[in-house]
Amino acid sequence: MKTLLDGVVVLDLTRFFSGPQCTLLLAGMGAEVIKIDDPRSGDPTAFAPPFAGASGTSFVKQTEHDMGLAYLKRQRGKKSITLDLKSKAGIEVFLELVETADVVVDNFSSGVMARLGIDYASLAKVNPSIVCCSLTGYGQTGPDRDAKAYDLMVQAAVGLVGLSGTPEGPPAKAATAMSDAISGVFAATGIVSALFHRQKTGHGQAIDVSMADCLFSLIFDEPIDCYRQLGLQPRQGNRIMRFSPFNVYRTRDGWVAIGTATAAEWLALLRAMGQSELPTSRPELLETSWRISNNGEVDALIDAWLHDLTSAEVLNQLGQTGVPCSLVRSIDDVLAWDQLRAREMIVPLTNPLSGATVQAGAPGFPIKFSHTPASYAVPAPIPGSHTDAILAQRAGLTETRIQQLRADGVI
Questions:
Q1: pTM of the prediction?
Q2: Which of 1, 33, 37, 198 has the fewest CB atoms within 10 Å, counting from its CB?
Q3: Assigned domain for 147 exists
Q4: Residues 183 and 101 in one domain
C-alpha cells in the first residue's frame, strides 16, 4: 500500500526538536524528507550527549560509533545531505533542489531565511507551488518576533510554568519540551493542509508557526483568565477547576489517578467506597460546585478509603464501576505497559554507524491509518550520506560539479 505522503519531497532545514518533530511526522507518513545541514558544523544533536551505542547510553562517548540519542530518535526515516547555505554556490544548488520539491521547512530565527535569500517570496519565484513552513519561538510578526527562545522560555512566556505546580510551591515547567513537540505537530498539520489546498488550487503558500501560539492555544482552553474571579489559585497541582474529585492519591503500595466528570461517575465512586448513603446526610456532596470549593475534604474521603488498598485493587474495583482511574506509572512501568506495546508505540532504535540496535527505545507513529500505514521503519541517516545521490537525482548535478562543490567546501 502507498503511504499518505508518497511522492512528496520535503527539504528540511530544521534543528533541535520543534522542526525535526514536524519533519519526523511527515517522514512517518511517507514523505521523502531530505535533511540539509552545514558541511562544517552538521546537525547539533548528531554527536552530542546523551550518546547511544554498543555499550549503552552515556553522557560520554564510549565507542567511535556512538551517536546522539536525540538525533537517532528525531531523524528516523529521513535522508541527509550537506550544503553550505551561506555560500553563493550553496544557494544556487538549494534553488535547484527547490524546483522539484514540494515543501521547505525551517526553524531558524525570524528573518534568517530572508537574509539568506531563500524566504517564501524568493522560493516561490523558482517554484510557485512550493509550501514553506517556518517555526519560531514567537512567530514572524509582533514585537517579540526576534526574541530567542527555547522550550523553557516559551512555557514561561505563555503561562504554563506559572500555572504548573502546587499552590504552595514554586512555578514548574512541564516535564518534557511541550512547546517544541506541540509546535512540530501543528506545523505538520499545517503543511498537510497546505498541500491539500495546493492540490485543489495549484498554489503554494507560506506557513508561520509560533511555538508560543501553539502552546497557548492549548492552555487557553481552560478559563485561566477567570481564576481570580472564581477564587482559585493559579497553580492547581493535579486538580482541575471543573471537576472534583480529580487528583492523584496514595495507595498502600503506590499512587493512582482518579477523576469524576459526571454525577454518575461520582455516585459510582461513592458506591465503590462503601459511601453510597453519604449524600443522604450530606446532600452538598452531590453539588459539583461545592466539591470544587472543598476539594480538600473530598480528597480526605478518598484517602481514607485507599489507605489499606493496593493500586491494583483500586484499579480493579473502579474499572468494574466505570470510574476513570489509572496507575501512576514509573517510566519502567510505562515501557512494560501492554497497551503501548500492542499499539506499537515503543519501537527499537538503530545506530546507523554500527548498524546495531541500541539500548534505548523510541516512540512509534501515533496515528493509525487503515489504508495508508505510517511508521519509522528506516533508522536515522549517517550525516551527509545521501549528498551525492540527492544532488544527482533531485538537482540534476553532474559528478564533475558535485566533486567541485566538495572541493570548494560547499558540500
A1: 0.93
A2: 1
A3: yes
A4: yes
